[in-house]
Design a protein that fits this description.
alpha+beta, seven-stranded antiparallel β-sheet, two-stranded antiparallel ribbon
Length: about 230
């Protein structure tokens, strides 16, 4: 395939995705929307674009990474639970947002707490997957994996647990554009994990006899303040 043919094909596919996306609202996470260009995202995050960041071809794949520890004091909301944001672009259009939450801001929170918080923004989950009580307890299921998904057409939000269920990640993405980006060399994120049917409510971490522990107090504090 020649470079000219590839350019025409990529332009056509992106236009097709855009036209189909026009029939449904672009999925948003906070002030970012799938389909935004790199310049607008960099402006919102305060990240400076380098020559390397700017797309050099219609099917170029690029990333912008924002980390809370590098933000100047006063430029991020106090108590914001987000530790890191990874924005992935294909053809200068945002197709995936990876949101990693700080473990101290989600300490004690159950999967049910997290699903409830995310559901306030995206509505009831399309599908829910519960983890076993211990890693490997059911069919060798890994301790990290998808907890719940919110799906609207080819756009989706996935909530995951990482590091033995002690931290959480959320991924906002367009499956159609992500497929194109992977062909162009985009890296994947750990959403492709085996699914297990939900067998019950999320595990509650309460003390025997109803005694309120320090962990439970931390959970209540973090759950009350948590904003995805």
């Amino acid at each position: 395939m020649t470079a000219t043919t590839r350019t025409v094909l990529v332009t056509f596919l992106l236009a097709l995705c855009a036209s189909e996306g026009a029939a449904q609202d672009r999925l948003r996470y906070r002030t970012y929307a799938l389909g935004d260009d790199m310049a607008s995202v960099s402006l919102q995050t305060g990240l400076t674009l380098s020559a390397h960041d700017r797309p050099t071809a219609p099917d170029a794949v690029r990333e912008l990474r924002w980390q809370a520890r590098y933000v100047r004091r006063g430029t991020a909301p106090e108590g914001d639970p987000v530790r890191r944001l990874i924005f992935s672009f294909y053809g200068d259009r945002l197709f995936r947002i990876v949101v990693d939450y700080a473990s101290d801001r989600t300490a004690g929170m159950t999967e049910g707490d997290m699903v409830g918080a995310v559901s306030k923004i995206f509505g009831p989950p399309t599908r829910r997957v519960d983890t076993p009580a211990a890693p490997g307890a059911i069919d060798g299921r890994p301790p990290a994996g998808v907890v719940a998904q919110w799906i609207d057409g080819d756009q989706s939000v996935a909530l995951l647990t990482l590091q033995d269920g002690t931290t959480f990640r959320m991924i906002v993405s367009s499956a159609r554009v992500e497929a194109l980006a992977r062909v162009a060399g985009a890296g994947s994120v750990p959403t492709d994990v085996p699914d297990w049917t939900s067998i019950g409510a999320s595990r509650a971490r309460t003390a025997a006899g109803g005694e309120v522990t320090a962990q439970d107090r931390t959970r209540r504090t973090n759950a009350a303040a948590f904003i995805p």
